[in-house]
Amino acid sequence: MSETVLLQQNQGVRRLAKHKLYLMMITAKIISRFGDSVDSIAYSWMVYLLTGSELLMGTLYAINFVPGIAFSMFTGVLVDRWSKKKVVIVTNAGRGITVTVSALLFFIGDLQPWHLFIFTFINSTLECFSTPAEMSLVPRILPKELLLSGNSLTSSASRTAELAGLAAAGGLIAMLGISGAMLIDALSFLLAALMYVWIRIDRDQGQEVDNDAGLMQAEESLSYWSQFKTGLKFVKGHKLMMMTMLSAAFVNLCLTPKNVLEPVYVKQILHSGPYGLSLIGIALITGMIISGLWISQKGSAYRKSSLIVFGFLLLGVTYSLLYVPALLREYPLYAAAAFCFGMGFAISFINTPVSTYMMEVTPKAMLGRVGALSSTICTCAIPVGSLLAGWAGAFVGVHVLYLVFGLLMLIPGVYLWSQKGFMKI
């Protein structure tokens, strides 16, 4: 490795500290992720207590992704046309209000399973706007050469906040109850929205650093449907981007048993409760933090394709190993935590290079549409996988599902490895 590359790596994080808008944005992300991680334990346990049904849990998880499939392709155009900052502020505030209502209903004992479907649908719909909007803001704040370091550092900081939230979740639930823990998540959304109020991005600022400023101006004169078709045509013309999106969709399908049936796995296989759920979550996020920090420092020395393939293969292997704790008589929880650490370590090798590549090759005027389309493709298989996981979980052991879907997850890694064009990015 040359001295120039080493110097660039060491200077990357230091240069990020000079971008105040980026620091404010990452602070808002940290606040919201902390609340989300506390809520993830409280909410999942609340759903399990209210429903007690694997099938209903799978159905509810599937509903979480229906808005993304139904609306994301269309919301991306609106995000490109609207103020990204205002979109992020409104969606964060809206999600904070929704979580507050659900927490209060649970506290007074009036929360019903059908309420969960409505609140989940609302939050997921708001996320259809917030995700592409946040993605569009990043390259308007950071120069291209800092995108990989910036995305990696943001990921690591977010995961650190999640880790802190998971570590505090058990104590907060014991002290404040499930509804109190959920209110912390609601407050974090409202605080994040307030942070974005102070982020100032001039319209001309994004154009000065954008080589496609002419395209940005031309896009403004197009109708909604013309912009929609332009975004589809752009993605269709990038085979490597399509390959990555479709591979991610397959991986999301394979991950649904873990996401849907994790409380069941913790109770039936690991013989634990909220503590076990929190511990394996901490292990997963710790792996993501460590790999994210490594990528932010040394990731630029490797091809993005190599990082992505490594992540796919490692994720498949460690996921399938979650079958092993069912065979252990002693310390199955800690064995599962070790494998979840490996899964977390692998995830950053996939997510960060993929998002960075997308930001690098996509004109800023299209980032909302491309990001929304990516979200649609990557999540389209999740409702099917969720229903399948909920149904299969009633007949097959959860650990068996983890083994089968973990082995299936190796397929996209091997496929991408065999594609010479992909391995050049």
From TrEMBL:
The chain crosses the membrane at residues 21-48, 60-80, 87-108, 172-199, 240-261, 273-295, 307-325, 331-350, 370-394, 400-418. Keywords: Cell membrane, Membrane, Transmembrane, Transmembrane helix. It is a multi-pass membrane protein. Its main location: membrane. It comes from the Bacteria. InterPro entries: MFS (IPR011701), MFS_trans_sf (IPR036259). It is found in: Cell membrane. SUPFAM superfamilies: MFS general substrate transporter (SSF103473). Pfam families: MFS_1 (PF07690). This is DHA3 family macrolide efflux protein-like MFS transporter.
